[in-house]
Every structure is written in C-alpha cells, then in structure tokens.
Amino acid sequence: MRYLDVRRHSKRERPNQHLSQWGVSIARRVGEGLGAFDRIVTSPLPRCTETAVAMGFAVNEIAEQLAGDDGLGETFPCMSEIDWGAGYVGFAHRVATLLPLAEFVRQQAELWREVVEAVPDGGRALIVGHGGAFLDGTAVYCLPQADHRAWGPVSGYCEGVRFG
C-alpha cells in the first residue's frame, strides 16, 4: 500500500503570495506530526512551496497543474455555483451535476494518482496545494459514495485528506 496526504497551503495575508509569520507557525506545528515522506509535490505558488518547507520538507517537484488554469490557485470551473457553507456536501452535489467542475477534479485526481504511484510500496507522498475544488472537490470525486456530511466544512489552512 502507498499513502498520499494532500494539504491546503498555510496562512498568508492577501494579496501577498508568501506565508505570514502565523502561517509559518501553523505549518511548523502541522509538519511535526506528519512523519516522513518519500515525495513532496507542490503548486508553483510561493505559499505552497513555503508551506512544505515550513513543515520541514524539501520540495521534490513543482506541478503547474496544481495552480489551475489561472496559475494562481484561486479559480476553478463553476466556482460561483458552489455552496461554500455546505462544506463537502456542497462540493459533492456540484461535482455530480456540473461537467466542467467534474472534469477539473478528475484531472486533479489523476495528478494525485501519478504522484502516489511514483513512491515505493509502503511509501508516502505529500501534495501541498490549494483548497476549494483543488482539494475538497477532488477528495469528493475520489470517494463519491462517502458520507460527505460527516466530513464537515471545507479544508482550512494546512488541513487536508489522507488516502491509503
């Protein structure tokens, strides 16, 4: 078995692309509890690479696809259609009904698969990217039959999902 952690980047102060001091502190605390990884892949944006480094990990690879079509990690198809207050349930409903969003998260999921398949059996990979459909929508896509209500609100800073 292989393992994949996918985490949202840590805190920044918009419009700055770099982590705030608070963001660095959050990432350090989270990183202390994660253990070692065989492969670290991040979005090209500084807030993502800096999160991985603050967690205590050297970045092995930058994946442009993790930043989306705008290259900023801030937009994805049909984002105005998401019921953000509904958390993962909101994403589950829209991923199931909006084809452009479903295609976007399918492509993200394929990248996740490629990342984790590159580690040895028993190995662990970490992706640090963005929230929204990049993380939450893709997690829903990967586990469509899960109880998304139990998953609660969308991912906060340095939160994410773990797959085995």
Beta-strand share of residues: 5-15%
What is Rg?
Answer: 15 Å
Query: Considering DSSP H and I runs of 4 or more, what fraction of the residues is helical?
Result: 25-40%
Low-confidence stretches: none
Order of strands, main sheet, comes to 3-2-4-1-5
Given helix and strand content, the structural type is: alpha/beta
Q: Which of globular, elongated, flat, extended, rod-shaped describes the shape? A: globular
Count the beta strands.
Answer: 5
Q: What string gives the helices and strands in order?
A: EHEHEHHEHHE
Number of helices: 6
| Main sheet properties | 5 strands, mixed
Mean pLDDT: 97
- Cα separation of the termini: 7 Å
What is the secondary structure topology, with strand pairs?
Blueprint: E1 3-8, H1 21-32, E2 39-42, H2 46-55, E3 61-62, H3 87-97, H4 99-117, E4 124-129, H5 136-142, H6 148-151, E5 160-163
Give an account of the 3D structure.
This protein is an alpha/beta fold and 164 residues long. 38% of the residues lie in helices and 13% in strands. It has six helices and five strands. Strands 3-2-4-1-5 form a five-stranded mixed β-sheet. Helix 2 links the parallel strand 2 and strand 3. Helix 3 crosses helix 4. It is globular and about 40 Å long. The termini are close together. The mean pLDDT is 97.
